[in-house]
Every structure is written in C-alpha cells, then in structure tokens.
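Box S1 | Example of a co-folding query
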Amino acid sequence: MSTGTAAHASKALQDEFNPFLSMAKGFDTAADHLKLDGGIRDVLRMPNRELTVNLPVLMDDGRVKVFTGYRVQHNTLRGPAKGGIRFAPEVNLDEVRALSAWMTWKCSVVNVPFGGGKGGVICDPREMSKNELERLTRRYTVAIMDILGPDRDVPAPDMNTNEQTMAWIMDTYSMHMRRTTTAVVTGKPLNIGGSKGRKEATGRGVMITANEALKMAGLRPEDTRVVVQGAGNVGGLGALLMHREGYRVVSLSDMYGFIHNPQGLDVPAVLAHLGSTKRLEGYREADYQATTPGKVPQLELDCELLVPAATENQITSLNADRIKARVIVEGANGPTTGVASDILDGRGIIVVPDILANAGGVTVSYFEWVQDRMGYFWTEEIVNSRLEQIMVQSFGAVRATAEQYGVSLRTGAYILAIDRVASVYKMRGLSA
Ligand code: NAD
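Box S1 (continued) | Returned holo structure for nicotinamide-adenine-dinucleotide
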C-alpha cells in the first residue's frame, strides 16, 4: 500500500470510528427519507449546549488532581435532557455529543417526554478509591449544577457509574438547593427514590426486543444460541433474563476476555463467579480466551443472536462480514459503525438498533422520575408490565415505519424518532 493510500485508509477508519459521525450518518439517511428541510436538519443534528468543566479533586495521597468532564444537552424540545454519565479514560467530547444525540432519538422512539443529554468524566475508576470517586462525583455535580434539575436535565448511570454515584449526585444537588430533590437523577437506590425494576430495565428491554426480533426471523428462544459481549448492567442482567426465558447463552465477555460453552452457560453461576472474583476468567464450565487488543473474536462465534452490550465500535468494517448471527440486538450504544451497519443490512442480518434495543433503561428512568414527582411508588409488576407494553409497542412502530419506507429497522427507528422531534419543533417554532 502506498503511503497516500495508507493515510487515506486510516482517515477512513478514523471517520468510521468517530461516534458522532456514525450518529450523523444514521440521522442524514433518515432525514433524506423524511425530506427534512435544511434548517431543521441543522438544528436537530447539532447539540443545543455543550459544557466542559475542569474539576480539582483531592486525592487520597494529599495531591490535587484536575479531571476534565463534560455535559452535553443535545435537544430539549420534547422535555428535560435525559442521559447517563460515564467515567472512563476514553471519554471525549465527540463521544459525549454522539451519546447525547442518541438519547434524543431514543427517548423519542419510545415516546417518553424527554430530550437527550449525556455526561462523562475522563478518569480511570479502577485506579481510584471510593472516597476519590465520591469527591470527583460531587465536584462534577457542582460544576454542572446550573444546567441540571428535574425540569432541565436528569442524569442516570452509564459505564462505570452506578446507584451509589446517583445517590451522591442527588445528595450534592439537594444540599445546594436546600431541599431533597430526588427527581434530579434516576437509577438511584430504592430507599432514596429509586424505582423497582430500574436495575434490570435495560437488560429486560433487550430481552423483550430480542423476543420480537426472533419472531421476524422465525426463531424461538429455545432454538437460539446467544453471544453476549459485556457482563455488566446491560449484558449480565440481559443474559440472566434471556437464560430464564429459555435462550441458550453460549458466551459472555468482560474487558479482559470471554468465556464460551456451546452447550450453554449456567448464567446465574457465571454471574456469581464474576461477582466474587470480578473476572470471568477462572469460571470452570467454559473455555476462556483473553482479549487481544484490536480484535474481537467473540463476536464471530457461531450463534443465532448476538448482543453487543459493552461499548462503541465493536462491529466494524473489519469484522462485519464474519459475523454469523442472524439477529443482532444492540444492548450498548453505538456498537456498530455506520459502515458496518450497511454491510450487515446487505447480508440480510436483522439488527435491532441501540436507540430501540436499549431504551428499556430510559423508559424505567422515566417511570422513576414520574414516581419521584408523584411521591407514590409502583410495584415491580406494574413497572415491568408497563415497560413491556412500551417496548413491544415501540418495536411495532419501528417495524411498521421500516416497512413503510422499505428500510432497515435502524433507519426506521431514526425516521420515527426524528419525525416526532421535528413535528414538535414545527409546532413550537423559534423562540427569541
Ligand atoms: P457496565 O460498566 O455495567 O458494564 C460494561 C461491561 O462491558 C463490563 O462487563 C465490562 O467488563 C465490559 N467491557 C467493557 N469494555 C469491553 C470490551 N472492549 N470488550 C468486552 N467487554 C467489555 O456498563 P453498562 O451499564 O452495562 O453499559 C454497557 C453499554 O450499554 C454502554 O454502551 C452503555 O452506554 C449502554 N447502555 C447502558 C444502559 C444502562 O441502563 N446501564 C442503558 C442504555 C445503554
């Protein structure tokens, strides 16, 4: 390869791996189908507001370290911004922008009255103590407080943040407001305004949409081998629920490697092992393969259903033609690049896109916000049955839109979502 060609190839790969460009590609395709006017297109494509904050934090050894964090509000036309906060070394503004836009489309697909937001802090939580994480979280909360609030922007957990993180945010916000304000975040512990069923909600939504996609493919859960990438909130709990539903989960991974047993994994036993050792490695009833940088062989295993539920850019132009699954349900946000998405469509693989597949989390976050504001809490049965109703209805609406326009489920989901936001924009008009 000449130097020029290599540079061109690497620029093409860089663009392919830029999550904001991936999101913009999905957006533009759908906007073309909707024949969206140029002005509205520009408004809906770019985030409304981007805040960058530098956070001095006292470390346990007495040093002060400065961390950089972001909060991006992509769009608030349909309601307060909604979206998680992630703590990770790879966090960057383009990623947070893309994730905030996906939240706008996701809330719209499931028709909950929120816009889209996302936050992140560049840090490595594995190298930080609990006290350091608490100080970082509280400082980040204060730094973005002017744009937070139950009617403005309502964060939730994402990668490497959890119920405890949300409790710290809620407490910091409440102390500054001089009143307990539970509805400022979702994904809280149950005893401080959390909702029953929230922890499992994203995994449950993944299972519900998998059930619907299987019907399209003419498969039954008991005939379906599942490979799940990631064993955290979405992947681990999604695998557990699918296992209970009769699916044969044959592989699970964490960031260190993956386990595989073609006969099926005893998912509760795997999760118990993971809970006690913090790694999948060492689980006896399956083969183990450690992660090699830049390669994801787990995704190419024999299976009917693949659930990428770890992170972005896992199915790419480098491996999309080797995926064996007939159905892919995107538990993670942005696991498939735009280029790979076209390859999968060309191969006739049914892909349930992230903005539908993982929307169970934001749906129950919406229930949590409603319950906090009512001060009246629902039973788990009510939460789960309302979640199921919304996910099945939304899947049906996306499928019908895809059929109407003759496009993939991904483009159908974007068309449905963008059309709903654009119609609100047209009705509200431009404020001064
Ligand atoms: P988590 O931190 O609970 O779990 C992430 C899992 O992925 C862990 O098992 C980790 O070891 C593994 N992992 C990380 N990098 C990996 C890699 N390169 N290869 C294989 N495994 C890897 O996070 P989560 O909350 O489960 O989120 C996972 C994805 O789902 C993210 O894309 C997140 O944005 C998305 N998501 C989460 C929710 C939610 O409610 N938690 C809702 C919607 C979407």
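The CA atoms of residues 280 and 293 lie 18 Å apart. The chain has a mean pLDDT of 95.
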